[in-house]
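Table S2 (text version). Query chain:
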Amino acid sequence: MLFIWSGFIAFVLLMLALDLGVFHRKAHVVKTKEALLWSALWIALGLSFTAFIYFGYENHWLGLGSHVDAVDGIVNDGKHAAIKYVTGYVIEKSLSVDNIFVIAMLFGFFAVPAMYQHRVLFWGILGALVMRGVMIGVGAKLVQEFHWILYFFGVLLIVTAVKMLFGDSGTSDPGKNVVVRLTKRFFPVTDHYHEGKFAVRAGATSSHLPAVPGGMEQRDEAVDRARPGKLMLTPLALALVMVETTDVVFAVDSIPAIFAITSDPFLVFTSNVFAILGLRSLYFALAGMMDKFHYLKYSLSAILALVGVKMLAASWLKEMLGANFNFYLLGAVMLILAIGVVASLLRRQPKKEPSVEEAVAP
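Corresponding structure-token output:
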């Protein structure tokens, strides 16, 4: 079993190394076409991994599928494991879309240059993988030892669904966030970006910044004031801190959702990892279309509520629908998500008011 875990983690690290070290070694603005290609690649990898899950659990490779799943009380064979993996992947992937909206708001607040956004997302997601791995390990242990915690997770998901439905995640000011304020208290922050660096040392870097097109050369006065040799964070580091913090908040909501499907740590972790790995490319693919998905929030809220109800009524649903009730849950999740996307695309966009020049033009 340890070999399976080590092999999967090594594969993920290899893909991340190729991503940043080869394909995105030089900072550049990620175009929509490039983002769509990478999104397709990550989705293909995530779905292709279903074949490994099926044969691994069907043949019990290195101990896979050798324990009773605490959620439904069965030992996962290839069919059940594959359904649970795909269901978890679709749920986590759909919930990650809400994270994209918040990341877009953070990048706008910190005015992160487009060419450095991929760097922030790369390190942010690498940190998210580590944090989610710890949270999944703890969660799986709790579910195995205390089955009643599933009901707590179910209530938590329903409450989260209500908050998502009636709340507005884009109204808070990241500058007033307690994590940002604590970071600024313990570390001095430069006034401007220094290329793609997260930190610089005063005196070791020039406070003269390259001139913007059509503008004059800038000076970073914060660097000038600092004692030579003092380590200083850049605004890029603050953006990274907020991306990491945001993912922790979203993980508290999304990880219980996967535990409604299965308590198998390998299925939970792998479905989460593949959903997160495609988050960077999905962000750049959707960044220019955020305002078109008006009804997506309602779909995500409905999915959370559905999963929460499933968690609370799992025994009754299993009696009524049979052992394949997770398959029906997968179909319901995909249907709700499709309805939100289609309804958003069919929604009439508000007409743009003509400018003064257009109004008076002959």
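Notes on Table S2: The longest helix spans residues 78-109. The mean pLDDT is 82.
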